[in-house]
Amino acid sequence: MIPVNEPLVTEKELAYVTDAVKSGWISSEGVYIDRFEAAVAKYVGRKYAVAVNNGTSALILAVRALNLLPGSEVIIPSFTIISCALACINNDLVPVFVDAEPLTWNLDVSKIEAKITSKTKAIMPVHIYGHPAEMFEIERIAKKHNLIIIEDFAEAIGSEYKGRKCGSFGDISCVSFYANKVITTGEGGMCLTDNPDLAAKLKKLKNLAFIPETRFIHQELGFNFRMTNVQAAMGLAQTEHVVAHVEKKRHIGAMYNKLLAPLAEKGLVTLPVELEGIVNTYWMYGVVLSDRLNITAAQMMEKLKGMGIQTRPFFYPMHQQPAFEKFSWYKKQVLHVSEKLYKYGFYLPTGLTLADAQVESSANALIKAVS
Fold first, then answer.
1. How many domains does the chain have?
2. What is the pLDDT of residue 217?
């Protein structure tokens, strides 16, 4: 079975992790925390970074640090992972879902302003599968309506928009270092900002809102979202490999683009794009089947599994999540692109350990399955 993803771990990761363990600093203190935060901040072009235990925690922490009034609305994509909505709900805020656009599968910026109300306080763009969202337009809309931007670049480490790294946009940017990410710590995440006051707030809140002078007297409620020094040691080693990781992802994407072009030219599938001024890392190489094929993504994935190719489904739309139906803010709606992407979309093996022959085998299996 060709795996959809396997993390690439080298002797450097082992050496740094071993050093962290031998130092005795295996919890949330130690030199690797600071070094990892500084390395990621430098890579994306931020002034401050705060490491946390996972990407979902990073989003929850970022939203909490902004002190938005309960009931405020946050615009998020419907086509994304549930973590974005959880960051709102766990802070007593209301997620407002916007459809995707069919080319990049990102938040459709042309539909944002129709969802803005007097309660709207923030926008949370997500760079889907490695292709950046239209950040300049999102910034224009945010400025016009006095909205905060919380950038989720978990799927776009190394991607660039108009010469800027993803992770450098908005008031706070958030990232995940889950095992399938371009930089991994197994589990882990980070918030980044250029605002020193926000950085201090994030650092305090992630550590149970301790105050050094009166450590066990709490003036506000925080979280235990701390990353360990051992995780940070692995993350630092990964960050030192990030350029090579991005090159490998783009190489895999280029191979798939070439091999699957005949299917796209026949209108049988839609492949990822790389618009002008964009660097797409192809974090995961997505394919959307044409409805002309009369086969859903789930059915195609089952066929590919039988051919020894592991795949993963696209996101289930947030506006259709059963878990949200109990909330007073929930409303039934139709968001055609997000729904179509889930029904017909899936991604192929895109891991950093893949050999070219495995990419070719995966592409050829899809070509055979479609034919």
1. 2
2. 92
